[in-house]
Design goal:
- The structure is a single chain.
- Helix 8 links the parallel strand 4 and strand 5.
- The protein is built from nine helices and eight strands.
- It starts with a helix and ends with a strand.
- By secondary structure, it is of the alpha/beta class.
- The chain is globular.
């Protein structure tokens, strides 16, 4: 990454390209989140990516990219499950950017879920709830079955594993949209072909700002 990449990065402009209505306000709230993340990370291991460059390129921009690729996310009312939400990426970022989304952030690690909940309170977010649990167990509970329009996950586990553990979450006509690198997607392709009741495809490949890596989305839709 070049030294000037971060200095030249215009978050409000990038946010607008991802269909965020008020990029300047979004950027201010991201700054609050970054400060809080750094403070909490000194006492609890939430993420190793806390520098400004990593936070804005590898957390914020990466999380937002889904709405650039699927612009309907910015305007339609979707119930979204973020599996393995970690320190809240993408769940906190998407909740900040799009009030129309109803987000359920799920993680098996209590300290991370507590951080996401506390951060949501700090930021005044009303469209996110947190669940401390494992998707494979929640998948068996009626409360979570046929509940979500979109199930997403970022840097958690291989797509076949996530799908197997959360295959009852999706409503009819819902979608699985998983953040992947091109290499990860290529490695998972053969296994996904064995999934008979879901049609899978990969989006185009996108380069993150600051030359922070390549990203695509593996998308699964239920076959009729």
């Amino acid at each position: 990454m070049k030294k000037n990449d971060f200095m030249d990065f215009d978050l409000p402009e990038f946010a607008s390209s991802c269909n965020v209505k008020n990029g300047a306000d979004f950027a201010k709230k991201c700054a609050v989140l970054h400060k809080y993340l750094c403070e909490c990370n000194e006492h609890v291991n939430l993420t190793r990516l806390t520098s400004e460059e990593d936070f804005y390129f590898k957390h914020v921009a990466d999380s937002l990219l889904i709405a650039q690729v699927f612009p309907e996310i910015a305007v339609e009312r979707f119930a979204v499950a973020d599996i393995g939400c970690g320190a809240g990426f993408p769940s906190l970022i998407l909740a900040l950017a799009f009030e129309n989304l109803e987000i359920t952030a799920i993680d098996s690690i209590g300290k991370k879920i507590k951080f996401v909940q506390d951060a949501a309170t700090l930021l005044g977010l009303k469209n996110i709830r947190t669940i401390h649990g494992r998707s494979v167990e929640l998948n068996c509970k009626k409360e979570f079955q046929n509940r979500f329009d979109i199930v997403t996950a970022r840097a958690v586990a291989p797509t076949p594993k996530i799908y197997k553990e959360a295959n009852k979450f999706i409503r009819r006509n819902g979608r699985y949209i998983f953040y992947k690198t091109p290499l990860q997607a290529a490695e998972e392709e053969a296994e996904l072909k064995k999934t008979n009741n879901v049609s899978w495809h990969n989006s185009a490949v996108y380069t993150l700002p600051g030359d922070a890596g390549e990203r695509l989305f593996t998308v699964g839709t239920t076959k009729k």
